[in-house]
Design goal:
Three copies of one chain form a homotrimer.
Chain A lengths: L1 H7 L7 H5 L2 H12 L16 H15 L14 H30 L7 H14 L1 H17 L7 H7 L1 H17 L5 H13 L2 E2 L4 E2 L4 E3 L5 E2 L4 E2 L4 E3 L3 E3 L7 H4 L8 E2 L4 E2 L4 E3 L4 E2 L4 E2 L4 E2 L7 E5 L4 E5 L12
Parallel strand pairs in A: 1-4, 2-5, 3-6, 4-7, 5-8, 6-9, 7-10, 8-11, 9-12, 10-13, 12-14
GO molecular function, one term (chains A, B, C): acyltransferase activity
Keywords (chains A, B, C): Acyltransferase, Amino-acid biosynthesis, Transferase
Organism (chains A, B, C): Desulfobotulus alkaliphilus
């Protein structure tokens, strides 16, 4: 049958010719659309930050922060100094260049006062690389916290190799350093890359203490002005967000504290939403799953949703007829 | 200790030999399994659509739609015409070829009447490329809407560089053009690629107006027959879905309106589920977070869930004993 | 204005020199941090499992399991035997090597008794490849189940090409074979890769029957000791998880049955959470959306959440003033 079908196939390979003649017109129409007011383009010869480069930087930093885990060649006592040195040396320039591109782009695009981008780029890159030993120490506390609270974790190495929560937190701790130095674009490109890989959306502005663990993680949202203390553990689908906004909120609320404060030793179970800049979850409190909270909770409190009433009916699928139970 | 351990290591590099002898038998067993009825294979010499090519097309179109943002080399007034022209010319053929492969595959596989795939492929590709200026205009409204409603957005450029919502909507607007031209496979490969990158699952059949904004986005599901007006804003975890289905629904309901209609200027907050083909959310209404809706809402209405009762108890973790609060 | 701005730009390209002098000090600080107790590094010359290799293996296995769907070159009756044979032969060694690396790493790192890693690696790889015909048969039932329950699916091929649920289940069925053979790291790297691509988080230890369908899938979590029967269908955001844990749970509960049992022919709608190792959902039962369940359900039962009370108010956005409804 297939051969028969093939014989009957009327497709003609020459069909493209007529259509290709439209390419110049199509091209001109796209170019004209770039000149329209309110259209978004990026047409000037200043270099811009490159998403692709920033993603490479994220993975190179991951290798520096967890030496030996993510390299194809093994790292040992004899080559450690050379490999780390080579890696720092190369990454340092790439990182500085991307920061400079971001600052220059911002400066030219929005006609800002001179940011002394060249100096600032190297200054911030230096600050970031100097912070690596401390980042390593803090991330070791995060790995330990992930292990201590998860019966499914079989070793610390398994967590570093494969847990999305650790990747998201590592990227956040890097992005937050750049955010605090007011680098445009790059912190958010980094955090949205981690969001894409993990489903965990942490705004680079969020302040997060040590021993922070996120289990499973898909659907987690942590807003820009959130403050999280030490030894906090959250599960998939937890939102730490802002209250509903007036229609012009985009402009009016920029920079204000809009997201909650979570004190030390708090656990928040899956699917829970906590909203508002004045909302404080007191130390050692536990918030159960699926809770919707817009007010503060004192320390040492357990908050759970009263189980919603369930309705049980027989014979759900027996008759194989349509059922509408929603 | 490590060296000692190494000395004790009994691993023998020659172990593979005996096992490799099984390769022919393993190969034959896989080949036999390809001949079984009901088994899924794709063994004939007709080309099939390539997921990898379709993903490349998505990124190439992203560069055409937002010129200068995602290229490594900068775009300026002197090279704009050449770069856009070169890009259109190359993409045009790739796009047409993939459409032709999809149509031929469908035609041969399901013994359909001749789809004149060669002509149809170039016809649809032409339609798509001609639509780019209009896509650019509509996506500019989406970018503006994202900016206007989000205090965490620091510039329009940041949104284009990094917001998953904009990527998902851009891919949807392209996939929807191919869906309406009844191109098999490709629209869904595109939308599932965007789903994979963003956690936002928009069926290519959904009809979506201008100034559409999705914030955070992970877990959003928008079904095939959903209709969304202009200036609608939704948050993470919103489902616009179908009511529960009878067991044989797969066949019986294909093509029917199964998903809701959202009129202009509606806002839907995080975690809300709206179901059913007859459900209409009236213009300017606001649906709060975590709402479960299966009926229509008139215009200018605010619908919120009555806060579920919370139970507060002291000393959640003080004694460090097991607690069961679920 | 742009040119003017450029003229005023004070950025100096020589700025890097002073900063680069700090590279040796930065390098030494990172190396010192690798020697600190409690720090995580992987510095010895034993090879470790490579995440990148494991991801390549996943995609190569996908091509073997669904022949012809994911290759650039087409597969036909004349080249099938050579291509499958070549692919098995190459993959066999790569898979065995990665298993050997994982076993050796585990053995050296945690000073375990000899695992006879070389033999064990080839033994397990052989077992996995021998299982492919059966995996193909079971995955064909999964594809059919996905098609039968989804009015938006236009063909079985579309499901194989693009549905995240099928990818996640295919990867799970492979990872589960390695998990049952107690291969360290690799099963979890595979399942977390699928999680990253699909938003569906299935622990490799979960036991899952035939005709398993996951629709949309983002946010699904299926825990390590879950047991799922045949012909079960679940939707996005469903968690099959553990009850809340005491603080030292990580160690105490390892290996215990902590996650629910779902019997044959059950459907679980979106956003539902089912928790606990003793919780059993009886055969043919249907669990509605957004349900929170911590107890067993008898067979043939329909469980739905009583719709939470909604509050309707007029004029949500009319006055364009701030509204706080949370």
């Amino acid at each position: 049958m297939l051969l028969d079908k093939e014989k009957r196939c009327k497709s003609e390979p020459g069909a493209s010719l007529g259509y290709r003649e439209e390419i110049p017109e199509i091209t001109e129409a796209i170019i004209r659309s770039c000149e329209e007011p309110g259209s978004f383009t990026h047409i000037n010869h200043e270099p811009i930050p490159s998403r692709q480069e920033v993603v490479s930087i994220v993975h190179a930093l991951q290798k520096l922060i967890f030496p030996g885990y993510f390299s194809r060649e093994s790292l040992d006592a004899t080559n450690l100094r050379y490999k780390i040195g080579h890696s720092v040396s190369r990454l340092f320039d790439t990182m500085a260049q991307q920061i400079i591109h971001s600052l220059r782009h911002d400066c030219f695009r929005y006609d800002k006062p001179c940011s002394h981008c060249s100096d600032q780029g190297y200054e911030t890159a230096t600050k970031l690389f100097r912070a690596i030993p401390d980042l390593r120490r803090i991330l070791a506390t995060d790995v330990s916290a992930a292990y201590d609270g998860d019966p499914a974790a079989s070793s610390h190495d398994e967590i570093i190799f494969s847990y999305p929560g650790i990747f998201a937190i590592a990227v956040h701790r890097v992005a937050n350093i750049l955010y605090k130095d007011e680098v445009p674009f790059i912190p958010r490109i980094m955090s949205e890359y981690a969001h894409s890989v993990t489903g965990i959306d942490i705004h680079p502005g969020a302040t997060i203490g040590e021993r922070f663990a996120i289990d499973h993680g898909t659907g987690v949202v942590i807003g820009e002005t959130t403050r999280i203390g030490n030894n906090v553990r959250i599960y998939q689908g937890v939102t730490l967000g802002a209250l509903s906004l007036p229609p012009d909120a985009g402009n009016r609320l920029k920079g204000k504290k809009r997201h909650p404060t979570i004190e030390d030793d708090v656990i928040i179970y899956s699917g829970t939403t906590i909203l508002g800049g004045d909302t404080v979850i007191g130390t050692r409190s536990v918030i159960g799953g699926n809770v919707w909270l817009t007010e503060s909770v004192p320390p040492d409190t357990l908050v759970v949703m009263e189980a919603p009433k369930l309705s049980y009916r027989a014979s759900a699928q027996k008759g194989k007829t349509s059922h509408d139970f929603t």
